Description:
By secondary structure, the protein is α+β, with helices and mostly antiparallel strands.
Amino acid sequence: MSEPKSPTPTPAGDTYKGWLFKWTNYIKGYQRRWFVLSNGLLSYYRTQAEMGHTCRGTINLATANIAVEDSCNFVISNGGAQTYHLKASSEVERQRWITALELAKAKAVHNQAESDDSGDECPTSPPTSGQGGGARNSNSEVQSTLRTLGSKVEDLSTCNDLIAKHGSALQRSLSELEGVRLGGDTEGKIRQVTERATLFRITSNAMINACRDFLALAQAHSKRWQKALYSERDQRIRLEETLEQLAKQHNHLERAFRGATVLPASQSNPALDSKSSGSAKGDASDEDDENEFFDAMEDPAEFITVPADPKYHRRSGSNASGFSTETGMDDQSLCDEQSLGSNPESPQSLEVEPVRKRRTKIPDKPNYSLNLWSIMKNCIGKELSKIPMPVNFNEPISMLQRLSEDLEYYELLDKASKCQSSTEQLCYVAAFTVSSYSTTVHRTGKPFNPLLGETYELDRLRESGYRSLCEQVSHHPPAAAHHAISERGWTLRQEISLASKFRGKYLSIMPLGTIHCIFEKSNNHYSWKKVTTTVHNIIVGKLWIDQSGEIDVVNHRTGDRCHLKFAPYSYFSRDVARKVTGVVTDKDGKAHYVLSGTWDEKMEFSRVMQSNRGENGTEGRQKTVYQTLKAKELWRKNPLPEGAETMYYFSSLALTLNEPEEGVAPTDSRRRPDQQLMEAGRWDEANAEKQRLEEKQRSVRREREREAQRAATPPEEVAEGAEEAEEAGSHQDNYQALWFKRVVDQVTGESVHVYKGGYWEAKDHGNWDMCPDIY
């Protein structure tokens, strides 16, 4: 069999890539694969186009052995767990790969040792103030430059070692040849080659010495750079303190001017006079407190909030000149007044009796120990949904139920539906988007991957006025469609698929898809996307979760927008952990509200009275200064049930998600046997049942593919042996959703699944004949 010629591999900086032939099995033999060598990791792909989404395998060179078999073949192994038998198209190309692999291995071993040593080190001269973030960043850049220089010298040193090794071997061979009795011309040529080899090694040593001299010079200058950076930092801190003092003085001057031009006592409001009599000293102190400037938020915050002028508070507190309409104070409290019926303490809500008493406890989580790293160490760079995981790392609910948990704080949407102001309604919708993350702060367990065709209903119509339905509409890639409708006049729909990557020390989960919320009364249509969830300390330490990224909640009818920013956790930050900030603006970009809080505790909003561009930030960007009224609470997280730490840290709603319900579809997640066994604490049986269900799903998929092949032209065979058998399921599922249909969204232009109706009618009639047997 003739083999296609592989192009010469090309280095790109620290990355080396090219085509090699990889041994798969005795049927397929060697198969052409695209290999990428980067950061001490050798990864391979079926084609270059797969580099952005699908890695077929990765081996860490720091612990790998590299052996040459013959002129074109070589083997890379990490001790038995992974072994790659590779073949280059020529001996020259093989030598290029061997050289690149040896360099990468030496560098990876050096970096690993350096990383192990750096854990015990501490900065010798840390900044004395939290304002030194800019200096710290600049110092980090200098240190990064020095590390880069050192890395390059290490590369050259490795090259020198290789040259010395091969040169010594060459000289030994030539010395042996000198001992052979040959003609004078031959001996002269051999002597000349020996001299040249010696000169080459001397030249390489000189190059290494020159590079080391350069590194020593750079390290000597680094102390001068650090001194200059710290000096700049101190100067910047002094300037910021001076500006803050000037701002306070300006504010005091404004108050003094207003105090000198107040109306006479005979013309002032009697109500205000009577209210302020006898407590002038207390009012003055309160006024000073209200006008005290807050500390500016650390970068990368793009705005600063300060209390608004006291005149706004005084006038909005009275009915004089109708100023409350201008400031929006009546508007700010409008939703709370109109949503009295949804307040648990109101007389109207006390008349509503719950339909049933929901459970408040599930069996305690068994204390089984299992090393996550032992399972995931060979899955670096792969898609998490394709990694078989035991239930030990799960929580006893499915991803469909986790989506339904977004409705934990449905009251926010109930209040939003009663708002007359679109910008204030947007505040409640934004708070609802943040509240959906509050249940994840301690939830490090992985939800069950739903089976194709699996559904979950959450019928709280008589208790809370809404009902929800989820269906798994695709398995490769996994995607779930969700539809919820409320009697209070709002509809929520979404189709979410998850892209997840294991990065070694942490796991990144990127939800893909758009969430839509439509209010029937105002016809306001909002949409937004989710942020990235990161699970830290996969290898060692206690698992913890962080949410980071930005969300734009957009009102497509009015053009209003709320930009939310989830600040990633930083050990060196002075800010509160899990911080969320946001600004609500209209279509013209004018700010109306400022939101602040944390995604695991509460959110507040403040009416913006005035805004102006402030001083430049540390990165040269101007920050906006918002003068706001006193903040009001939008949302606060409900406390966890008693004993939640032994019940997977489930919220009150999550505890009821697996509670048996009469009349649900046979595909409902409550009926999933492995999930029920796990909740009951029978994990060994749950693992066996999980494997049975997954194998059944694979059999059904293969049968569906055969039916599709009989109905159309057979597709090109893609499976390539045992090690790549699972790759055959990476294409789109040929599956027709039962309760959802695929349409083109008129707002976003995306092809999404929307609810087509019929589920609740089928439940009323008890007719589930159309449901597949998935369990």
